[in-house]
Amino acid sequence: MPPKRVAIVTSSTRRPRLNPTITQYVHDVLASDPTIPTKHTHDTTIDTDPRHITLEIIDLSAQSLPLYDESVIPASLPASDPTPHYSKAHTRAWSALVRQYDAFIFVTPQYNWSIPASLKNALDYLYYEWVGKPAGIVSYGSRGGRKAADHLRGVLEGLRMRVVGTAPGLPVKFTGLPVGTLSEVEERVEVDERDLEGWREAGVEGMMRNLGMELVCELDK
Ligand SMILES: Cc1cc2nc3c(=O)[nH]c(=O)nc-3n(C[C@H](O)[C@H](O)[C@H](O)COP(=O)(O)O)c2cc1C
């Protein structure tokens, strides 16, 4: 049985941005936890453990989705195979990508007490590709992005996703909020060591592992 594929979604699309660094942090915490049955994507041995998962990163900035311009209503398409019915090539590509994954962890900043428009836009493009799949939320912001996480939970529940209870929020207190000029090559934004230490002390990494195990349990159902 092939491992179940879990996508960790980088949701902001501006440059420079903190999101890729936080996404990688979430990935590394989960991948290094021996209790989460992660199979590394480069591991080609035949898989016999039905609980195995892979962790892969999807960056919304690489999808180049315009502001919603579909002429069809996603929820009105055939549930079993919506992909060919979209009117736009970018929607068909996004649909085909999302259909490959069994579960999602959305890593979102807080923008004005909610999620970035890029994430809402990417979610709105599809419907049956999300329905019934397990989802986890990791938020960040000056106080952990709780309002963004709560908004996102409502949106994902509207898409009939099975949102797990644990939703770590990462307060960003010392890391400078990234600002700068747009460059061709994205520069990595480093998290201030004091923020990392604060997250560890607050048990955020343990919450991430709980989130990971909740997803594994949901995938096992
Ligand atoms: C448009 C905008 C709105 C923001 N609103 C909030 C907010 O409501 N609460 C908060 O804690 N931080 C807010 N911030 C700060 C962001 O959480 C912070 O800049 C973070 O780095 C954004 O993630 P990103 O770098 O991946 O885009 C806002 C930032 C932007 C760009």
Structure keywords:
6 helices, Rossmann fold, oxidoreductase activity, 221 residues, alpha/beta, NADPH-dependent FMN reductase-like domain-containing protein
Secondary-structure topology with pairs:
Elements (H helix, E strand, L loop, with lengths): L3 E7 L8 H13 L21 E7 L29 H11 L3 E7 L7 H8 L9 E8 L4 H13 L3 E2 L5 E3 L21 H9 L2 H17 L1
Parallel strand pairs: 1-2, 1-3, 3-4, 4-5, 4-6
The structure holds flavin mononucleotide (FMN).
Flavin mononucleotide binds next to loops.
- Number of structural units classed as domains: 1
Kindly state the percentage of residues in helix. Answer: 25-40%
Distinct ligands, ions and cofactors found in the model: flavin mononucleotide
Assembly state: single chain
Termini distance? 15 Å
CATH superfamily: Flavodoxin domain
Unreliable stretches, pLDDT < 50, 5 or more residues? Answer: none
GO cellular component, one term: cytosol
InterPro entries: Flavoprotein-like_sf, FMN_Rdtase-like_dom, NAD(P)H-dep_reductase
Protein name: NADPH-dependent FMN reductase-like domain-containing protein
Pfam families: FMN_red (PF03358)
Give an overview of the whole structure.
It comes from Penicillium arizonense. This is NADPH-dependent FMN reductase-like domain-containing protein. InterPro entries: Flavoprotein-like_sf, FMN_Rdtase-like_dom, NAD(P)H-dep_reductase. One of its GO terms (cellular component) is cytosol. Helix content is 32%, strand content 15%. The protein is an alpha/beta fold and 221 residues long. The chain has one domain: Flavodoxin domain (Rossmann fold, 3-Layer(aba) Sandwich). The longest helix is centred in the last third of the chain and has 17 residues. The model has no long low-confidence stretch (mean pLDDT 94).
